[in-house]
Amino acid sequence: MTRVQANLVLLLAAAIWGGGFVAQSTAMHAIGPFWFIGLRFAVAAIVVLPFVWLEARKAAAPVTRKNAMSFTLVGIALFGGAATQQVGLQTTTVTNSSFITGLYVVFVPMIAVVFLRRPPHWVIWPAALMALTGIYLLSGGSFSHLTVGDLLTVVCAIFWAIQITLAGSAVAETGRPLAISAVQFAVTAAAGLAAAIVTEPISLEAISDAIWEILYVGIFSSGLAFALQVIGQRYTTSSQAAIFLSSEALFGASLAALILGETVSPLGYVGCALMFAAMLTVELVPEMARRRAISD
Question: N or C, which terminus of the chain has less Cβ within 10 Å?
Fold first, then answer.
């Protein structure tokens, strides 16, 4: 695969994830957020199982009990992110959700300080300020105008950052990304269904009305897009991969405008641009510095 083809594959993955925000929003016209989470991740777990079997056949060592515990922790973090994002979509727009969720790339270096005792690159601080300013402008120039959904989505981005950090450590330790995916999907599905049984009504009619959204997010956003990401990143640079994958927020906002008729104020567009710039800055500046150091 050429680099151009790999970047197009990553762009397709980002587009699929962007469409997932729209599907997550429209599904809640028929079904509660926790039922949606439980069912979508159950589908995702089933979809990835054959690939887990193939991975296990080639693995150098079996998964230990300690590995299984670390995989479960990844799943708990994933559930935290999925739950706050899905509940947040009840009171925020798809546009806001897609851009605020994307701020996980800014939070990852901060989370690494806590979990890995790894000092962040200096660029994280101006990027965090850019992101905070972007949220401020997206809210219309007043934090008091932020909805509960916006604030939950900020929490979601923090959970995503924790999940990425824990998953990265688990992959480095075991070399089993697909096994980790299956376990985290299963844990999130079980937690979502348990919460749904306690807090939300359900009927076969509700599931039927939301079935296409459940299948789209379960099969394509969780299954296909993950595979495309893994494939694409093998044949391109990490900096280019960051650019194309970060376009998930742009696709989410564009599809929300096209399909749902969402609009953003001019000030909000400036805020989105600042948040997107913060995402790219965190990914690209350290990579450029690393390359410069190698060339020197």
Answer: C
As a whole number of angstroms, the distance between CA 94 and CA 236 comes to: 30
Cα radius of gyration rounded to whole Å, the chain: 19
Confidence of residue 282 (pLDDT cuts 50, 70, 90): confident
**Looking at the predicted structure, is the pLDDT value of residue 211 above 90?**
yes
Q: What's the sign of the alpha-carbon dihedral 23, 249, 255, 10?
A: negative
d(CA 239, CA 78): 25
Q: Alpha-carbon distance 288 to 276, whole Å?
A: 18
Cα-based distances in Å from 288 to 33, 35, 113, 168: 40, 43, 21, 21
Quick one: DSSP state of residue 144?
G
> Over 80: is that where the pLDDT of 237 sits?
no
- Cβ-based neighbours of 171, under 8 Å, separated by 6 or more: 177, 180
Residue 145 burial by Cβ neighbours in a 10 Å radius (0-12, 13-18, 19+): exposed
Residue 192 clears pLDDT 90, i.e. is over it: yes
Contact in structure between 8 and 217 (CB atoms under 8 Å): no
20 with 199: CB under 8 angstroms?
no
